[in-house]
Amino acid sequence: MEISVAAPQRLPFTIKPRMHRDKLGKEAMVLGSLTNIKSMSETLCFASVDFGMMNTEIQVVCHGSELCQQLRSIRLNSSVRVVGKLGLKPAPKSAPKPAPGNIEHQEPLEDLLTHKQVEVVATEILCLNSVAPDVHIGKDHSFPSQSRHLQIRFDESLKRRLLLRSRVARYIKEYLGKDFLEIETPILFKSSPEGAREFLVPTRKPGYAYALPQSPQQYKQILMATGVKNYFQFAKCFRDEDLRADRQPEFTQLDLEMAYADGEKVMAKIENLIKSLYLKVSSKHPAISLYPLPKSDFVRMSYEEAMSEHGSDKPDLRINGLIHRIDYFVPDEFRSMLTSVQEPVIEACKLRLNCESQQVRTFLTKFMDSPDAEPFTSNVDGAPGFCVYDSRKPVEGLQSLGFESAEQLKTLYGNLRRPRYHDKKVHKTNTRFEDADLLIIQARPNLPHSGGSTMLGKLRLALHKAAVAEGLIQPDTDHRYLWVTEFPMFTLDNDTDPGQGGTAGFSATHHPFTAPRTAEDVDLLLTDPLKAKADHYDLVVNGIELGGGSRRIHNAEMQKFVMRDIIKMSEERMDDFSHLFEALASGCPPHAGFAIGFDRLMAVLTGVESVKDVIYFPKSSKGEDMMVKSPAPMTNAALSPYHLQLKSPTEP
């Protein structure tokens, strides 16, 4: 008996942004959001269906009263399924008529067609999920953070940034994947004093808790002891810190570690990655307004140079006026007006504004009367002093300094060396005084630099930013990268950073696994630890710290010595790192690594100030997810399995 087998039913192909021309005339399917309906008559309608994330609308044509009525009954922005025949879009009526024999306007000659060149003549329309009657959405609406899904859906600039984030991550994985292993490290870690506050995760075992990792630092060092030579991952990190525009309680880091490597090798790898990334982004995404970075090496600058000349450990190289010490010629009378600090350091910097002297004075008055100036006017070391250079005024506007000191000031500026990151034009501006130049003067205690910035460094940055906003300084859109190196290995304890819980009165500046920079710095650990420098390096661009890394201590005994004898951790605290000591003692190779704040990198690439604008579901300034309402309040019933209970309001 002969058995007939039915031919398999051919399903319609799914519309894509680009399709081969042999798809013309075949049955196609569009799955997407209905974004527009244009009714030409009772029997003819045009519609647009967005089937992708970014500018991927395709035209749908409906013929017949029944199909057109079905289309018009669907609310805009509902999810739909359209099946029909794929055809070329007709040339617009306003287009010039082709010359005889010219088929340019009849159909494209290329093999691939874009979705903008074709249309679907519908035979079937199905609404998969309609927008509810009480929901009002669309591109013209402004959505609160509670409706983040709609912000992403209708905010074209936000959507563009988030799409670029995905593409950048994919490119980085391709770039590093050639000679690095991508490895996922655990999220449930344990409490470990590395320098930031942690989030604890209670367990049902009485008295025990996990901690969410501040970074994969210890895991990636342990990986070096496993035989993994090069490691990377996009790691989720968690820190219970005070929040601001560039901070989130959970954030993404691009982490990497290299065995048998020092800081030079790591910096070279990161520098090449960044340059390659800019080349990729600028060539593929011109709307981002980025240009390839110069082929020259990134600028190198020591921590001391950064703090002395820029007043910050993350210098913005777009600000041309550097900071200089002038206390050796400042008159006693002027010094006493600036500060009550005994034998202070007095520093000055000069900014050139594109305006007249009187406009500078007006700008300065406006700034000093604003809330932004409060930290500077209330500075315990003294408020700043200002001079506006004016050749028509007595002592050319520098009368506060007196004639002799004014001459010494001009001599100082006239003999300045030219930094390697300043061209001749900028150096000429920095070494000469012209009308409307603003001189900023600030006193501080005569102590070694510590922390991230000086008060003059903060004021210099704030005034430059305000002058750019007022149009008094031309904005510089270039991305100026540099490496800051030779950080102090230890920093005095303060009231804000938890440190590592030692009793020495100081803590590791970055984390306690950072190696001393030189043999001399090893010796200083025994005599004067606060003078020892770490083999640490930060990557900075336009005043933003993108990431940091270091050569690690790879010897177990050296690591114990730093923690026990220098930081003076308790034996109980030392036991928290027993797993790391064991890994290092197993013949762990020398190694170094780095971590880039991926959210910050994306903010820089897309030109936004806040990392919230490059994260799909960010937290608010209070650490809350406004859409899902987290964190959520707890009850004693929910805490009971973890042997915890809520504290009574009356309890101390």
Automatic annotation (TrEMBL):
Tell me which GO cellular component terms the UniProt record holds. mitochondrion
Q: Which GO terms describe its biological process?
A: aspartyl-tRNA aminoacylation
Q: Domain Aminoacyl-transfer RNA synthetases class-II family profile, which positions?
A: 164-618
Q: Which UniProt keywords apply?
A: Aminoacyl-tRNA synthetase, ATP-binding, Ligase, Nucleotide-binding, Protein biosynthesis
Q: Which SUPFAM superfamilies match?
A: Class II aaRS and biotin synthetases (SSF55681)
Please give the Gene Ontology molecular function terms for this protein: aspartate-tRNA ligase activity; ATP binding
- Specify whether Nucleotide-binding is a keyword of the entry: yes
Q: Per the similarity annotation, which family is this?
A: Belongs to the class-II aminoacyl-tRNA synthetase family. Type 1 subfamily.
Q: Which NCBIfam families match?
A: aspS_bact
Write down what this protein is called. Aminoacyl-transfer RNA synthetases class-II family profile domain-containing protein
What organism is listed for this UniProt entry? Hyaloscypha hepaticicola
